[in-house]
Amino acid sequence: MGNPEQFGKTYKKLIDASNCVVVAPDYQLSIEAPYPAALDDCYDTLLWMKSHAKELGIREDQLMVGGESAGGGLTAAITLYARDQGEVNIAFQMPLYPMIDDRMITESAKDNNAPIWNSDYNHWAWKLYLGELAGRDVPSYAAAARANDYSNLPPTVTFVGDLEPFRDETIHYVENLRKAGVPVDFELYKGCFHGFDIIQPNAEVSKKAISVFIKSFKYAVDHYFAEQNTKS
């Protein structure tokens, strides 16, 4: 669901905070093509950014990735994929309330009837995204929570509401990153449902979440770099 234009306000906040360049890939949705179509689209975009850094006016040692919900899941997946492929290095990742565990075995993912996104919607979305892989041996590039190795991933910022299905898988993801030595800024917001910051941007908790997120992003711009190994 959705398109890049929906998140224009988020892009503007990032640009205002750092004068960065935002590239938003219009990746194929699950209803059009299941995994790995969206991952391939995003990875190809990342490689394109690396090879066109000078043309875009960006630093090739500060390529950062981010997204919300399914986009957050793609963010977590693409950092794993990029690390393993060794073609492009990512300086920072921003997987916000990410969709990363198709197994739906955590307490928050089971029988969750929260507003906006619940267990039924989640089950349907995973089935659509995975296609023929659903219920089988799903790779970590499709569901990042299935990864066994979180080492050498980029510094991370994320947050999640405590009412939503992705709460526990996000917490576990953060714990695994930290165990692997990855710097992580993480916030859990009480009484918040999926996508609360976008749906109710004027709520005080949403303003706080956005402010903390932007602060972490600004810190990343000043402190996190990832030199590229080769030109492509």
Automatic annotation (TrEMBL):
<dbReference type="Pfam" id="PF07859">
    <property type="entry name" value="Abhydrolase_3"/>
</dbReference>
<dbReference type="InterPro" id="IPR013094">
    <property type="entry name" value="AB_hydrolase_3"/>
</dbReference>
<dbReference type="InterPro" id="IPR050300">
    <property type="entry name" value="GDXG_lipolytic_enzyme"/>
</dbReference>
<dbReference type="GO" id="GO:0016787">
    <property type="term" value="F:hydrolase activity"/>
</dbReference>
<keyword id="KW-0378">Hydrolase</keyword>
<protein>
    <submittedName>
        <fullName>Esterase</fullName>
    </submittedName>
</protein>
<feature type="domain" description="Alpha/beta hydrolase fold-3">
    <location>
        <begin position="2"/>
        <end position="196"/>
    </location>
</feature>
<dbReference type="InterPro" id="IPR029058">
    <property type="entry name" value="AB_hydrolase_fold"/>
</dbReference>
